[in-house]
Structures are given as structure tokens and as C-alpha cells.
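User: Fold this one for me? It's 18202_t:CDS:1.
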Amino acid sequence: TKITRSEEAGYMQGAREKLCREILTEYLGSPSLIRRPEFLKTQEHLNGLELDIFYPQYGFAIEVQGIQHEKYHEFFHKGDPNNFIRQQARDQLKKEFCEKNWIALRYVWYYEDPYLRFLTLEQYLLYL
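Assistant: Here's what I get for 18202_t:CDS:1.
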């Protein structure tokens, strides 16, 4: 069976998110099983927007961001620049709802080393 670019990209993003989850679990225990908290539900998003890694007991969540969250990418946005605009709107809405609910939203970008990124997160957690 031939693997499509879509499957490969999904695997890479999933693998990166899994690595981030494993690193955090080592320090903090498992994240919440609830990835779509009530405060992220809207009339437009009835099931709720999703947080990649959520630690409500510590008041923060992690979003593992691929290139499609930063700039238009023909592959990820299915050739439609409006899909990128919608992606940006969802990301902004998620950020605003987290702020309103006292959840610090932190990002791990596709170009960052998760191990180094979490060193700064560890320093942040020391002040909670």
C-alpha cells in the first residue's frame, strides 16, 4: 500500500505530538483525557475546539503547531487560502477562550526542539 503525503504529514504531526506528550508525562503525569473542554464549545464548533495536551490542574495547555498554523500551505489547506484563514480564526478563538478561562496556552512549533522548549516550560511551572 502506498502512503499518501496526507498520511505522511498526519503521521509526522501525530508523532511530534506524541513525543511532546511523553516528555510532559514524565514530569507531570498523564494529561487530561478531556481534549475538548466545555469552554471551547461554540455554536459554530458544537463539539468544541481541541487542545493537543491539556493540564487543567496546572492551568495550562500545549498546542503542537505544524507549518499550516503559521502560513498558507497548499497541501494542508487543500489548495484553498480560505482554509488557512479559517485555521487562523480557530487558533485565535482557542487562544482567547483559554485566556478567559485562565488557561495558559503554550505552543511547540514545528521548527522547535521539544526538549529545549519544555526546559522553558519547566521554569514556568516552577512559578505556579
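One thing worth pointing out: The mean pLDDT is 81.
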